[in-house]
Specification:
Structural class of chain A: alpha/beta
Oligomer: heterodimer
Number of strands of chain B: 4
Helix content of chain A: 40-55%
Strand order of the largest sheet of chain A: 7-6-8-9-10-14-15
CATH architecture of the largest domain in chain A: 3-Layer(aba) Sandwich
Number of domains of chain B: 1
Strand content of chain A: 15-25%
Order of helices and strands of chain B: HHHHEEEHHHHEHHH
Largest sheet of chain A: 7 strands, mixed
Shape of chain B: globular
Number of helices of chain B: 11
Shape of chain A: elongated
CATH class of the largest domain in chain A: Alpha Beta
Largest sheet of chain B: 2 strands, antiparallel
Structural class of chain B: mainly alpha
CATH topology of chain B: ABC transporter involved in vitamin B12 uptake, BtuC
Number of strands of chain A: 15
Order of helices and strands of chain A: HHEHEHEHEEHEHEHEHEHHEHHHEEEEE
């Protein structure tokens, strides 16, 4: 009952805010500023998956974001004001995500939201922040659709701090062309996953644009265990390399079986490969000559990355993962926009965010494209005797 | 593609298909035996196969067993599980409508899947390599020692099963109960015991399949039984449900068809082909390839 009332109250409050913003027009900004706690602090919200089944993503991302805010405050804050962080938990459920964001937007009056981690929760939070004209940065939501409206126009208040799924397809096609020097490539993709299908399509387009050729395109389904029939067919097409965008569960078996039937060409994949289980199931030897794209590698020699890893380790007593880095990057992007805009007005802040260009973040330079996706590099990881090793960084 | 390489492709795909098909056959046998004796499509059968794989995993990883002791351990364990499931879940429902017992089977299936998830976590487990896979090259063809192991183990088990069903007293009792349970009881056959034995045998075969899959594909997880369970069901229907040689033939045919469809048409159509077979069989020969047309007395 109480929850129901809360929901009702918050939606009434939200409606009131939207109405106020609409009727007041440009003047609304000033009014909203007045409603915010004046003085020497800026309130920033973080809404994450802190409990539930993807809690490890949310917690990790928040730890990186927190680190960026702490560093900023230690260095004097934003234009003389300290940043205060308020967090809320969406329990890893999109249905809760709207409420969790509504709470920090309406009660805590945050000037911007960072999070949630997963695309589904971001999509659920989107109407709330758009209604309240508060920018939201999703650090690691990779679904292409979350920053775009149905008609393809960009959502004014939604940003992200990671590359989108299809970008990895471009990266690996470039890697095949520039580093492996292969032209005839076979693709084996998971036809039950949008992620895999999207990557396969983009890879093929980029490959063909670069003058390459797809000699075989075969599909499998999640949870399949036997890939020998498809692999035998692929082998008969004599490819110079094989591209397998997918998750480690199937990929590990594909790599193992490919080597068993004597398909010894280089194999390439996506960040779904990233798991210690990959080497356990496929075997270290089979994984030699395998490469996959990722956003982060602890072996990256880039000084920015190494500095981030060291600071994070000192602070959290454990190694950072890709989520922590993206949370940290989101923090830096937000702080930079707050400094540059010199205001906490949501609409102006969103404009400033969209104009982010060549900002130094942990993974290199950070620039937004017109769809609020960062133009950033990806990393290619090579498997060597079962260990992940940094191969190269690819900037498109 | 010239004729020579086409032929070699064909033979290679046959090899792939037969090794996959012998797993389907092992699981299909249990389906068909249980259907034959109590007219129940045991939807939990694929999960028994999963339980068998986990038992094999425990035996090899924690108890340090070799291949043979591990597979026997898994078969005994799964056989026991089969007996318990029949006793607890199906026996009280024996006189209930067919649909009620079918739903019970689905319930048992979920119970096994999610209990295993609770115990062993949903993460896939890596099977220890108790057999180093040796690869044999016969000209352009590639055969793996594990493929041979699967085929040989499956054949040995099928021969053993045929012997038990056709030559032993217990097997005769099974056939009798399957033919007419009431008459068998009147002849002094312990029907309950015979049904228990059938569940034990069917489950043990599925467990053997589970262990073989674990060794061959190197990874097991709590939901691994869903798709093979479905495919084995198709295999059983294809061969004629309730008929033991039918399940063997059905499993092998299905494996080969899948490999050939993936190899010569497209891997996207592989599952579609399997299910199309199920639909065609149900439409045109519902008794299966080896089934006889038995008129139901009204």
């Amino acid at each position: 009952m109480f929850m129901k009332m809360m929901k009702k109250l918050s939606s009434v409050a939200l409606a009131a805010m939207v109405l106020a913003a609409l009727t007041a027009g440009c003047g609304g900004g000033a009014k909203k500023d007045a409603a915010k706690p004046a003085g020497n602090e800026i309130v920033v919200g973080a809404s994450f998956e802190l409990t539930g089944n993807v809690a490890n993503y949310g917690k990790s991302t928040l730890s990186g974001f927190q680190m960026a805010i702490d560093e900023t405050n230690k260095a004097g804050g934003v234009n003389g004001k300290k940043i205060r962080l308020v967090t809320s938990d969406n329990k890893s459920e999109p249905a809760e995500s709207g409420n969790a964001v509504t709470k920090i937007v309406t009660q805590d009056k945050v000037v911007a939201v960072v999070g949630p981690a997963t695309s589904g929760c971001v999509a659920a939070a989107e109407p709330v922040v758009t209604g309240a004209k508060v920018p939201l940065i999703a650090p690691c939501a990779t679904a292409p659709g979350i920053t775009l409206n149905k008609d393809g126009s960009v959502k004014q208040f939604i940003f992200r701090a990671c590359f989108i799924d299809p970008f990895q397809g471009q990266v690996m096609a470039t890697f095949a062309d520039k580093t492996l020097h292969v032209k005839k490539i076979a693709i084996l993709f998971d036809s039950s996953s949008d992620y895999s299908k999207g990557l396969a399509d983009v890879f093929q387009k980029t490959l063909e644009k670069n003058g390459g050729q797809v000699v075989a395109k075969e599909a499998f389904l999640a949870k399949d265990i036997d890939f020998k029939a498809a692999l035998t067919k692929i082998k008969a097409s004599n490819p110079e390399a094989l591209y397998v965008p997918g998750y480690y569960e199937e990929v590990s078996k594909i790599v193992k079986q490919a080597r068993e039937i004597g398909l010894n060409v280089p194999m390439m994949g996506s960040d779904g490969w990233d798991s210690p289980k990959l080497a356990e199931i496929a075997g270290s030897a089979a994984l030699n000559n395998c490469y996959f794209s990722s956003a982060f590698s602890a072996d990256d020699k880039d000084p920015g990355v190494q500095k981030f890893i060291k600071t994070y380790k000192d602070l959290n007593k454990k190694d950072p993962d890709v989520f922590a880095m993206q949370g940290y990057n989101a923090g830096l992007v937000l702080v930079n926009a707050l400094k540059t805009a010199g205001t906490t007005d949501g609409t102006k802040l969103a404009v400033t965010l969209a104009a982010t260009k060549d900002l130094s973040v942990a993974s290199g330079k950070f620039t937004y494209d017109k769809n609020h996706n960062p133009i950033t590099g990806a990393i290619v990881i090579a498997m060597k005797d079962g260990k992940q090793t940094f191969k190269e960084k690819i900037n498109l | 593609m010239d004729m020579g390489s086409l032929l070699h492709q064909f033979i290679q795909q046959m090899i792939n298909g037969i090794s996959l098909g012998s797993i389907y056959a092992l699981i299909a046998l249990g389906y068909t035996m249980i259907y034959g004796i109590i007219k129940l499509i045991n939807f939990a059968h694929g999960d028994i196969y999963m339980v068998g794989a986990y038992l094999g995993f425990i035996a090899t990883t924690y108890l340090g067993f070799g291949f043979l002791p591990a597979i026997i351990f898994a078969m005994l364990g799964a056989g026991l599980a089969g007996i318990i499931i029949e006793r607890v879940a199906y026996r009280p429902m024996r006189n209930a409508p067919r649909i009620a017992i079918l739903i019970t089977a689905i319930g048992v299936s979920f119970f096994l899947e999610y209990t295993m998830m609770l115990i062993a976590s949903p993460q896939p487990r890596t099977f220890p390599a108790i057999f180093e896979a040796t690869v044999y090259h016969l000209g352009p063809l590639v055969v793996n020692s594990q493929q041979i192991l699967i085929l040989v183990s499956a054949l040995v088990l099928m021969v053993a099963l045929s012997y038990i069903v056709n030559k032993t007293k217990a097997g005769m009792a099974m056939r009798a109960v399957s033919f007419d349970a009431d008459a068998a009881q009147l002849m002094g056959i312990n029907v309950d015991k015979t049904i228990s034995l059938t569940f034990a045998l069917g489950s043990a075969l599925a467990a053997a399949g589970g262990v073989l899959v674990g060794i061959y594909y190197n990874s097991i997880d709590p939901l691994m039984g869903m798709m093979p369970g479905m495919k084995a069901f198709i295999a059983a229907v294809l061969g004629g449900i309730g008929i033991i040689p039918g399940a063997m033939a059905g499993g092998l045919i299905l494996g080969v068809v899948e490999a050939l469809v993936s190899g010569f048409i497209s891997s996207t159509f592989r599952d579609a082909a399997s299910f199309a077979i199920l639909i065609l069989i149900l439409l045109y020969k519902p008794t299966g390839l080896l089934g006889k047309n038995v008129r139901e007395k009204v």
